[in-house]
From TrEMBL:
Source organism (scientific name): Theileria annulata
Region (Disordered): 313-334
Keywords of this entry: Signal
Domain of life where this protein originates: Eukaryota
Ranges of Low complexity composition bias in the record: 317-332
Protein name: Uncharacterized protein
Range of residues in the leader sequence: 1-23
Amino acid sequence: MLFYYYTLLIFLTLQTLIKSSYSFIFSTHFHLNDLYHNNLYNNLYNNINDKNIYNNSINGGNVHNWCVYATKSKLKAVRKFTRDRPKKTTPAAIYPSPTLYYGNVHDHFGAPPEYLPIPVQDTLDFLRNGRLSELISLLKAGITGSELSKLLSDNSFHEALSKELESIKDISEFQNDDVSNDLYLYFDRVINKPEEYDHYVDKFYTLKRLQSYWAEREQKLYNTTFRQLFSRLRSIAYKMKDAGIPLAEFANPTLWHKYGVFKPVPNCKMVENYLKKHQIAINFDIKKLYFRDENGEIKSNFENFFSKLYKPDDSTHNSTDNSDNSNSNNNSEVEDSYSLHIDKVIGETGFNVDENGRLPEDLVDRIVDDLSDLGVLNHQEPWAINLSKIEELQEQFTTEQSQHAYAIRDFYLSLKFPDYKIETDPYTLESYVNHEYRTKTYERDLLVKYKNWLKSGAPRETFKPMNEKYKHLAIWHSLSKNQRRKLVQKYLKTQTVPVS
């Protein structure tokens, strides 16, 4: 028993000694660690102070930011510890290349729906054989709401359509057909309110609205640019007057281009390039490009047309040099109707399209042969088109090959569409492009306004002071937040009435 207590006492004594030794070791370690870090930080602080003293005394006082690096070591193979660019907010795309075919056809304007619902057979009979088929043919032809309203003024036609429409409504209710019900709702609005639902009737309604929005927007931008150009023209005209050129002699668009009046707008030659591309069709009757000889073979008049066009002594047709001279003659009235070429009598051609809108086969073969000689088509692969050659012909439009290609194009379109013609009015041509490219229109309107300005005595531009409202607004924006708050508090004190 005594031995047991003696062994237990020795064990407790050893345990106490071990605990005290551990506490001593830990305290000594932390104490030494604190001393080490304090010494390290003191050395870093002294180094920073020394650097600041050096920068202030020797380096001209330019104190640089010294980075104190962290004690944690970088990971292995880490090149940079900090990140210069911001973090990515979106994950990287798995397939960055664009897809070849887009799945949703409704993303494209005018695309047909993927599925076309079909009504029941009884409704289809009315749509194919009844008076509704006449209405559908009119809608396909592109009739407008006002035109359809005049046709529906015939009571017999309107009553027949209304009767068939009621039958379609009964079919939709009896057979529980949703497609027939949708057709009833559509045709009910078309028949009874065609002018109110013009977007249901006219298939070009959206394009017309977009065209009108674009035309109004471009006209506003054109007016703004025109005012800027006229202000620039007046300032340059007075500078030319100081240099010795009278204001009346400066009424010349060539001088305006020379002295930088049109510098804010791009130098556009769209009209000149268009007229050069189609000069065969402008100077000659393009429908006579191909003809049949005595043997019935198809011949081409292109070489004859081209030689006459570039013949300098030709008196029957205007050459391109004469047309260029007429363009550069700025003494003529720019505001008058502008026509580069004389009027020509358009004759009949021996070729006509059939009921299906197709040309004669021998004429098509001759056109294909000419296009193959130009390099656009290939005899070995007639289904393939050389797009690079087409681009080359479009860029080099003054060459004989390019003129031949454009002549073939105009000949085909003149047969395919009887009302097709080449527009020669530059102002009409420029109405199809954006406002900054309407150089000829700017010249015409500026010349008219410049002459009116000379008749009014050529007054200088008056300085318009800023409106009082914008003066106060500018002062308000220049104040700080506290200044605004104090002014508001001061104003509220004058407006509030103390409560008695």
